[in-house]
Structures are given as C-alpha cells and as structure tokens.
Amino acid sequence: MLFLVKYNYYWNIKKQKGKAEDRLFSYIRNVIGKYSPFYRNHFKKHNIDYKAIDTIKEFQAIPPITKKEHMKEPKAFILTPNEPDWWECTSETDPLPGIKTFKYWLKSLNKTYLREVFSKETFTEDDRIIMEAVNEWLPIQFLSTKGSENPALIAFTKRDIIQNISEITSHLFMTGFKPNWEMFNTYLASPNIAFFQSAWSPLFVGGGTYFTYGDEQTSIEKQLKLVSSITFEVFLGTPSYTKTWLEAAIAKLKKSQLSKISSFKLCLLSGEPVTPTLKSEIKDLFSKLGSSPSIIESYSNNRAKVSFHECSENSGIHLDPRYFYWEVLDSKSLEPVNEGEKGYLCFSHIDWRGTAFIRYNTGDLIDGITWERCEHCGLTFPKIKGHIQRTN
User: How far is CA 333 from CA 324, 336, 337, 344, 346, in A?
Assistant: First the structure.
C-alpha cells in the first residue's frame, strides 16, 4: 500500500491533529502574516503577534471573520508577496526570502517552458525564476461568491490546482469510483466550486465526462437520449435538479419512450443541502429507472475553494484535514465548542495560495464535527455530523 510522503490519512487522530496544528501555525507565521494584506491589518488591529502563534489558544485569539469582511475588500485576501519587479504590488507585504528565489532557480533547471519555445523575446534565467514564482503566487482563475449584486472574487493559483485541489479531488476514490467510469454532469456552467471541481476532476481522477451545462444548453429530452445510448456510471447534479431529471426519465419510461437505465453506480449531489427525505426519494427514483447507485452527499463552499463529500451513503461528509483546520463555533458566543457539539462551521486554510482565509465562519449550522477512523473507507477524517443548515 502506497502512502503520501509527508501526510498519511491512516495516521491516528492525535497524530493528524498535531500535524494540522503544526502546519497551521507555520502557515500563519510564514505565509499569511507576511503576504496577506487583510490579515496583516487584522492582526495589527487586534494586537496579535502572528510570529508568536504556537498554540491553539493563541490561534483562537484571532477574531473569526465572515463574508462581510471579505465582501468589503476581496482583493486584500489574495496572498501577494511584495515583488514589484515580478508583478504589480499595491500593498505593503513582505518580499520573498532569498532562499525562495534559489529554490525557484533549482526548480527551473532542466525544464522547458512553452513561453521559452514560442516567445519572440529572449528567455533569460531570471525569466525562468519568475515563471516559477508566477505559478505559485499569481491567480490563474477566479470563482465568485453568489447571492450578491457585487460578487467577491476568489483566486486560485496554478499551485493550488495542481497540488491541493488534485489531492482533495482524489478523495472521490473513497466512494469506489474507478477511472474508467463515465460521468454525466448536469451542473450549470457557473463560476462556483461545485461546477469547477467536477470540471477539474477528469484531469486528476480520470473518467470521461459529458457536461450538459443545464437545460438551456442541453434539454432533458436530449439528455435522456444520450444516457440511453452511452453507458454512464456516475450522475452529478444538485439534489433538486437530480430529482426533476429522474422524474422526467420515469415519465418517459412509463410511456415506453425510454428503456430502463441500469448503469448508474454513483450519484454525487452537490450545490445544495440535501435532507434525508430527499435523499430517499432520489434513491427510489433511481431504482424505478433501473439503477441502484450510492447516493453521496457533498458540501460545497466557494470560499473554502473545494467541495467535500461522503465516502459512502450516510457515512458523514469527510472534511479534508491536511489543507484545512476545522472548528465549530457556538452560534451565540462564537467561541469554539467541544467536539461533536452543534454550531457554525469554521475553517482556516493551510498551505494555500491565491485567496486564503483564517478562522472563516461559514454561517452554516451543523450538528458537530467528529474525528474518527471511518468504518467504510478505513481512513481517518473529521466528519460533519447530521444535516447542514445554510443560514446565509
């Protein structure tokens, strides 16, 4: 069995928690405090010495933030080292240390850059170093928040996608997913993480994907013809649309305008909360269609920059412990509650670039988080208990 070199999801709870804390404190001291315009001001405003944070008590002295702070100045949450010769710098952050430049130079050795191949300009050794820095720090994609007339952009760098998102997307293998399966993706094309994680997933986990982009691009009539002619093992959709789609398919089936479809093995629901009743209804509709897929619930949050899901039906949503530090805050005092107690889900990024948050209160009420070795996948994860209630 292969293990990750620097992190192992089979480690026990104590070791994983300790590793998460060490990585979190180091991230705050060496990245957030130096390169985040917002948190530099946030720490100064609340008289917090970020360089001295070395315990959970010191970490939890950082006041949690909400979307209100992010909406005011979203650009200030994008990590930007002060390197005016490399890119535009409009805030007073720290420059990168010299050892970082040396590492970029080492990384650039024996590489061929497409810019080097096609550019009309001479490609120098300094340009190679800058290319490595750009890959780590400059955004290559933005998603946006919703529910506002002025959505706030959320930045991703190439490093985010290649390193962090590739690993978290690969959690799909916990469900039993196989890279030769075909995915039928009914998500609307929009700048949110539920859609884009599904768009990125073939790059990291395999599987052919057909994107319907919603009814306006591909009518349900055309969609049903497609799933009748091609074998799809995975169905991706929001809970509400999945139910609507299945009801349309069952109506066609009753009129003998559609044959039974038995190929679906996995249904991944995302983008909306799903109640146990709705989950049961969807499972029953799939059964009537001729399939018996596992119904997997997901949790998506654009500011988290990734989606999380169950490993099997009703296993509880597995939250990533390597690239996030998770808390649950009391809904009134906003103080951290004990493990397993109800409150607002709160996360801190660990080792991300682009947009990054520390102690971000999602405003999503959950019944609690429990750390456990999952009896279904055998891995150790923090898991969301019960139903998620969106309050904002």
Answer: 23, 9, 10, 11, 14
Question: Contact at 8 Å (CB) between 104 and 83?
Answer: no
Name residues whose C-beta falls within 8 Å of residue 279's C-beta, 6 or more positions apart in sequence.
239, 269, 295, 297
For the record, the structure tokens of 289 come out as 């269609």
Within a 10 A sphere around the Cβ of 74, how many other Cβ atoms?
22
Which tens digits make up the pLDDT trace of 63-118?
Answer: 999 999 999 999 999 999 999 999 998 889 999 999 999 999 999 998 888 888 99
Alpha helices, H only, 46-111? 56-59, 67-72, 98-108
- The yes or no reply on domain 13-390 and CATH 3.40.50.12780 is yes
Q: Which amino acid is at 6?
A: K
- From residue 75, alpha-carbon distances to 72, 82, 139, 344 in Å are 9, 14, 11, 25
Domain boundaries, the chain: 13-390
At residue 78, the 3 state secondary structure works out as strand
Residue whose C-alpha is closest to residue 315's, from 385, 249, 366: 385
Which single residue is written with the structure tokens 């102690």? 359
- What sections of 82-144 are H helices per DSSP? 98-108, 114-118, 125-137
**Three-state secondary structure call for residue 70:** helix
Give how far the C-alpha of residue 109 lies from the chain's centroid of Cα atoms, to the nearest Å. 32
d(CA 268, CA 294) in angstroms, rounded, equals 8
Beta bridge mates, 269: 237, 297
Q: Report the pLDDT averaged over residues 289-311.
A: 95
Which of 47, 28, 36 has the alpha carbon at shortest distance from 73?
A: 36
Beta strands in the chain (DSSP E): 139-144, 153-157, 182-185, 208-211, 234-237, 266-269, 294-301, 306-309, 317-318, 324-329, 343-349, 360-366, 369-373, 380-384, 389-390
Tokens of 330: 């009391």
The amino acid at 313? E
- The amino acid at residue 207 is G
